[in-house]
Amino acid sequence: MTESANHRRSTREWIVDSIVFVVAVLLGLVLYDQSQKEGISSAMLAVDFYAGMALCLTLWFRRRWPVQLALIAAVVSIFSDTASAATLILILSVAVYKPWRATLLVFAVNSISLFAYIQIKNQNDDAAIVIAATSIYVAVAGWGLYIRSRRQLLQTLRDRADRAETVAKLQAEQGQMRAREEIAREMHDVLGHRLSLLSVHAGALAYRPDASTEEVAGAAEIIRASAHQALQDLREVIGVLRAPVGELPQPTFADLPQLVEASRTAGVPIDLTLDAPGALPDHVGRTAYRIVQEGLTNAMKHAPGEKLTISVIGAPGNGLSVEVRNPAPQRRRGDGQGLIGLTERAALVEGRIEHGRTPDGEFRLFAWLPWPA
């Protein structure tokens, strides 16, 4: 809390220091006038006056060197009544700006200087002077310690408020990040699958110029319906961007056969094995649905027209295994954001994801999800 060498006084500090200096000078002059009435020699009065005024000038530096100046004041006050007010202010400054040990040291040194003052001045009422001076020292030091403790309390409260604000800001940013990630996963899973179906049908039209009118009309109708559904899904997702993440449109495990059937209608050959009797928790069933959906999307994107094998098997207490296999393409396109999203989804339900090429040349997407008994 000391003033650094490069510290610039604020307007408030300039005002306080000016008032302190003026008060010390005025009180010093009053005490000097009292000393003149005691019949002290002119030489001693001159030393008293100039030493006291010099000590008053040091008050401008009391924030930077409070202890050093207070020790000097203890020496000066032995022979200078004019320095008394400045000495008290320096004791106060030590109590405000320094730990209590420094205050105790300055108090002890000033107590010793008090006895030296009594011996030099040859005062008759020694006991009264000691009691009065000690009481004043204790009062000034106690006031300074109170000011210091209050400032420390206020600083502690400010620090706590700053930390709380920082923590709240970080939590809000993390919450926003989680919400964005969740929305990104939803948009990828929902729209990616619909657009993959569109790509399959559009590709079929492009590669079959000899298709009949009925086949072209049927494919066009499927493309129109898929595009309309994709637009509806996009509107649903965008419509809830300002709502809590939990209100995003969510599929269920019961929608899995419908998802597979829609891909079959699009011309994707699929062999589905579904054996999961029992009441599957909603969050686990939703994750299983997303895994199959991502597997279908990747198969239509990277291996169009190839047979897809899907196996969803599980039971309460044993967990749910989801496996999607298809012939692996020679070169895989994409940045893998869907698989990253699946890994995050599985981790949220304490499951795991495995994916990659198998020795027999297939791409395998496997997931194990917990299913409590």
From TrEMBL:
Residues in DUF7134 domain copies: 11-151
InterPro entries assigned: DUF7134, HATPase_C_sf, Sensor_HK_TwoCompSys, Sig_transdc_His_kin_sub3_dim/P
Top-rank EC class of the record's enzyme: transferase
Molecular function via GO: ATP binding; phosphorelay sensor kinase activity; protein dimerization activity
Membrane-spanning parts: 14-32, 44-61, 67-95, 102-120, 126-147
Catalytic activity: ATP + protein L-histidine = ADP + protein N-phospho-L-histidine
Domain of life according to the entry: Bacteria
UniProt keyword GTP-binding, yes or no: no
Entry-linked PANTHER family: NITRATE/NITRITE SENSOR PROTEIN NARX-RELATED (PTHR24421), NITRATE_NITRITE SENSOR PROTEIN NARQ (PTHR24421:SF10)
Name this protein carries in UniProt: histidine kinase
Source lineage: Bacteria, Bacillati, Actinomycetota, Actinomycetes, Propionibacteriales
